[in-house]
Write a structure and sequence with these properties.
The structure holds two protein chains of two kinds. Chain A contains eleven helices and no strands. By secondary structure, chain A is an all-alpha fold. Chain A has one domain. Chain A starts with a helix and ends with a helix. Chain A is globular, with a radius of gyration of 19 Å. By secondary structure, chain B is of the alpha/beta class. Chain B has one domain: Rossmann fold (3-Layer(aba) Sandwich), CATH 3.40.50. A six-stranded mixed sheet of chain B has the order 6-7-8-3-9-10, with helices on both faces. In chain B, strand 9 and strand 10 form a beta hairpin. In chain B, helix 7 packs across helix 8. The two termini of chain B are 36 Å apart. Classes of the chains: A mainly alpha, B alpha/beta. At the A-B interface, helix 1 and helix 4 of A face helix 2 of B.
């Protein structure tokens, strides 16, 4: 698997899109810092962008890479390489290179701005870590979708729908249900609902670690009580891990049974 | 060398292979022929483990293929459509496949010379013409000295000189005692190089034997007419 990962990674590192993605984050970081002049505020703005954009790029890149390298995958399948290593290698190659673009692209302007001497370093690292997690989660989901759909257009469609659901529609349904059931105690329900969507989970995780969480009122206090504790943090990390591991398991399983 | 027993495969409702029994003993050139959609490529992909059969058994040198991937070290394969990652250079692609196979003894330099690929070595694969890609494909397929070589439409897109070189190459590989499986639609090419042909029709083996046997069986004076008579008789 290591060899496949290495070559997928090199292949992507040379593609124009990785640079576009990297430069975008670099520019975003620079602009935010110079406009805001405040690290904490820049982190919040970044969070809002990352939480929507990272899943989108992860899904699109994942699906695109899979369909584009299809013929090459067939060449690899005829080599004495295990099937699962080919697909897991490609997945990790894509996810790693995307995470690198994110971490280096955003990290550089912040390092030059002096993040190491600032109290925002923890918030900022949390932002990058959740960003990397989201990349891995959505790339894995994209690979699962691409592997189960021969038809590219369908594959792209489902991938975009998945993103739309996770990033936008889920929140809508969540809010509606909160309004509808407002007479009932909803603490456990909302905690569960947040846990089940990686996008929401990342958002809440980052927000609660910022100072503005005080503005969230009673709900914020419930969340703070939960996510602020070690138990909450461990549970959320476990959920994020599961969100990576379960789709990865599906990649492995589908790849094993598929005809090429 | 290759033994196939009762091989069945269907894609959805489309039954492609309906009970293939085939024994290929070592050495010689065997052509797999048949009309479009008769299951040639599926059969080859089953041997390579790219398509998983519904039932039946395939073994190579006595080892069953199920849950095994190391046996592909013994096979060289030329895929039908040559499409490589566009960001790689030709030389990098060759180095990569070598690396993946952990093979020391390769003859890529010889083959690059044979197909006159030196000017393209530092070009990106995305910028190559179809014929040049096919030559790269051929280099990749022949550079390891594996006892079993599988070629799916090897003549696709080749110019006449390269075609000739390929024929010589295949013949010289045969002299080394290799087993070579070929699918092709170019009958003159098949007639010239094959020792034996296997004719697939609607997922079954219709005929297996030498070309002269086929001519006697169909009572036709030449190969092309013999093939044509199989097709018209079966569709009539």
């Amino acid at each position: 698997m290591r060899k496949i990962l290495k070559y997928s990674f090199y292949d992507l590192m040379r593609s124009r899109w990785s640079y576009v993605y990297f430069l975008f984050y670099l520019l975003l970081g620079v602009v935010l810092l110079f406009l805001n002049n405040d690290l904490s505020k820049a982190v919040i703005t970044l969070m809002n962008i990352i939480i929507i954009l990272v899943p989108l790029i992860g899904t699109i890149f994942g699906v695109m890479y899979y369909y584009n390298s299809r013929e090459f995958t067939e060449l690899l399948l005829a080599q004495p390489v295990k099937r699962s290593s080919i697909f897991l290698g490609q997945f990790f190659g894509v996810a790693t290179s995307l995470s690198m673009s994110l971490i280096i692209g955003l990290g550089m302007p912040f390092v030059f701005y002096g993040i190491f001497n600032s109290s925002a370093i923890w918030d900022f690292s949390l932002l990058l870590i959740t960003g990397a997690f989201l990349t891995f989660i959505f790339t894995a989901l994209a690979f699962v979708i691409a592997l189960s759909n021969e038809n590219r257009i369908k594959g792209f469609g489902y991938a975009i729908l998945l993103w739309l659901f996770m990033a936008v529609i889920y929140d809508g349904i969540f809010l509606m249900s909160l309004l509808y059931f407002e007479d009932y105690p909803l603490d456990t329900f909302s905690l569960m609902a947040i846990m089940l969507n990686p996008v929401d989970l990342s958002r809440v995780l980052i927000l609660l670690n910022l100072d503005i969480s005080a503005l969230l009122g009673y709900t914020g206090a419930v969340f703070q009580k939960f996510f602020g504790t070690n138990f909450g943090l461990v549970l959320s990390s476990v959920m994020m891990m599961l969100w990576v591991l379960i789709p990865t398991y599906f990649i492995w399983r589908i790849a094993k049974k598929k005809d090429f | 060398m290759v033994a196939i027993k009762e091989l069945y495969k269907k894609f959805g409702k489309n039954e492609v292979l309906k009970g293939i029994d085939l024994h290929i003993s070592g050495g010689g050139i065997i052509s797999i022929l048949g009309p479009n959609g008769s299951g040639k490529t599926t059969l080859i992909k089953c041997i390579l483990g790219m398509v998983l059969q519904d039932s039946g058994e395939i073994s190579i040198n006595g080892n069953p293929l199920k849950n095994n991937f190391k046996y592909r070290n013994e096979i060289d394969y030329l895929p039908q459509i040559a499409n490589f990652p566009g960001n790689l250079k030709v030389s990098e692609l060759i180095a990569m496949i070598k690396d993946l196979r952990d093979s020391k003894a390769t003859k890529d330099a010889e083959l690059i010379e044979l197909f006159k690929l030196q000017p393209f070595l530092n070009k990106k694969l995305a910028n190559l013409s179809g014929g040049t890609k096919q030559k790269v494909n051929l280099v990749l397929a022949f550079m390891f000295d594996s006892p079993l070589v599988i070629l799916d439409e090897p003549t696709n897109g080749l110019d006449p000189i390269s075609h000739l070189r390929l024929k010589n190459l295949i013949n010289s590989e045969k002299q080394k005692g290799k087993t070579i499986l070929i699918t092709s639609h170019i009958l003159s090419f098949v007639e010239e190089i094959s020792d034996e042909i296997v004719f697939l029709l609607e997922g079954k083996i219709y005929f297996k034997g030498s070309i002269s046997e086929l001519k006697t069986k169909t009572e036709q004076p030449d190969f092309e007419h013999a093939i044509a008579s199989i097709l018209t008789n079966s569709y009539a």
